[in-house]
TrEMBL record:
Organism: Klebsiella pneumoniae
Entries under Pfam families matching the protein: MFS_1, Sugar_tr
Protein name (database record): Metabolite transport protein
Keyword Transmembrane helix: yes
Molecular-function annotations in GO: carboxylic acid transmembrane transporter activity
Gene name of this polypeptide: nanT
Lineage: Bacteria, Pseudomonadati, Pseudomonadota, Gammaproteobacteria, Enterobacterales
Amino acid sequence: MSTLRRSPLAILLTLAVRPVGALIFGRAAEKFGRKPILMLNIVFFSAFELLSAAAPSLMLFFLLRVLYGVAMGGIWGVASSLAMETIPDRSRGLMSGLFQAGYPFGYLLAAVAYGLLFEQLGWRGMFVIGAAPVLLLPFIYFCVEESPVWQAARQNKESTALLPVLRSHWKLCLYLVVLMAAFNFFSHGTQDLYPVFLKVQHGFEPKTVSIIAVCYNIASIIGGVFFGSLSEKIGRRKAIMIAAMLALPVIPLWAFASGSLALGAGAFLMQFMVQGAWGVIPTWLNELVPANTRAVLPGFVYQLGNLLASVNATLQASIAQHHGHNYGLAMALVAGTVAIVITVLTFFGREGRAIQSAGAGHHQPLSTSR
């Protein structure tokens, strides 16, 4: 099997094992605490990233990336539960937006590192830089408190068994998996092929594509913080639905305009809305699920949704190929469809803002609130 044929398989398997990581590290965080498991998760995450830089063969590199995928799968759920359970209730919306803003901010840092250092360090050097999160361990150890929710549950010797929760809340779990699949299609469907769209369909120079990418990643950060904060005032569901619906009128400018300025403006507005909706997700998921599953269940459904959405690039490329390599049309179809799906799913969801995260005993998801 050629290297080119192995690469998509490696990416797919890395995505496939992320839910495994979410279960392993999430369950450990329910039993041993959010903080120590997050630190352990970062150690594994960084170690496999660093070892990837020294891989002597493609097959060993492949194995290390799979192990990296397991470690990566645990980060989001454990970190979001620690963050949402530790901060004051009134700040959860804002902090949710800041938490999710780490996603586009990471893209920005990676783009800067690649542009400045790739020629000097090569691909192995990029993986060495990717192990930098291990430097956060002293800060987490000395400055971050353990979740008061987990501490109270431990003192009360409350059950952390997952299967009873899945049995009693299976409808909620299924709903969240479908919701997260739609959300991941929303982000990947508006991001994955956009650089290809700019290069191939519009013939832009790499520098122009990079500038547009930087702009829409900045918009992602701003949008996440804005709608996360807005959700404290108008509710989680309304904030998500507004962001998703406002993405629809942006589609013509984002996908069918001509010229770098117009497309750049469209990309800025689109990612402001897409990541604006995403900015509410960390706190909303943590508020919807029982307190004794917050380290495992949000991360697990998030990673399952991400796995289901991993077909996005292939789907959009296929649509484009059947329409004269019109990537704009392919992206518009996916983005418009999932924006509507997210709006409908969120409308029929539950408003979780009233759930308190400052103590034990809040183990039932909030009843439906319109």
